[in-house]
Design the sequence.
């Protein structure tokens, strides 16, 4: 009879164990929880402020570009109309 020999070609990595939380009693936990909530609110407020500051800057830049483009278009349309009238009517 033939023996079947198993060859290990792949080893599973050693899975790290989940970190254990230190034991915290209820009053300390409530204090930590309140601190975490306040910090989360601060971070959220900062993120919203940063978002709107960036949005305002992008909006302002877009408006400046649009204004410049509109001015250039108005100039070109006026120039085109002037050239269509001919040299005798050009001012």
Sequence:
């Amino acid at each position: 009879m033939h023996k079947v020999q198993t060859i290990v070609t792949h080893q599973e990595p050693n899975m790290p164990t989940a970190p254990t939380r230190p034991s915290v009693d209820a009053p300390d936990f409530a204090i930590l929880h309140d601190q975490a909530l306040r910090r989360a609110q601060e971070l959220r407020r900062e993120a919203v402020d940063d978002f709107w500051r960036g949005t305002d800057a992008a909006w302002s830049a877009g408006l400046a570009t649009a204004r410049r483009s509109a001015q250039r278009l108005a100039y070109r349309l006026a120039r085109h109309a002037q050239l269509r009238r001919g040299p005798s009517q050009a001012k």
